[in-house]
Amino acid sequence: MATLEEHLATLDRNKSNSVILSFLKFLRETSLRESALVLNYGKEILKTSSLRLGNEYWTVTEQVFIAALDCNDVEFAKKCLKTLQKKFPKSLRVQRLEGYLYEQQGDLDEAAKHYKTILKQHPTDQISMKRQICICKSKNSIAKATL
Asked: How would you classify residue 107: left for phi > 0, otherwise alpha for psi between -120 and 50, otherwise beta?
């Protein structure tokens, strides 16, 4: 498997869609969080190649959404989220992304409310439970976090 440096060197020589997609897939598979790079290349590929990506379009859109949050590009994150909500209106995964957006914007009360709504519909959703705990901890409500 190529290293991050090798992928970046390839991108310096060739910024074709297939090279960018390969790079984004590499980052997902290796769990590397190179948000600025993902946002930069992801924006480009979402703008120019959405019809040619097939189902990978949705994976890339989610990846770019997370990167946009990391890079504080809230407006682009909202565009990605809106796209995903339109395609997957009842998706638990997309519902969680909305909670991430609230958190990134510092609206912890709304995020907590959102995760609570998710947990009413999906009481065993561990990711939403963990997000609730993180919110309680960040608000210094450790007692609530253990409930």
From this structure: beta
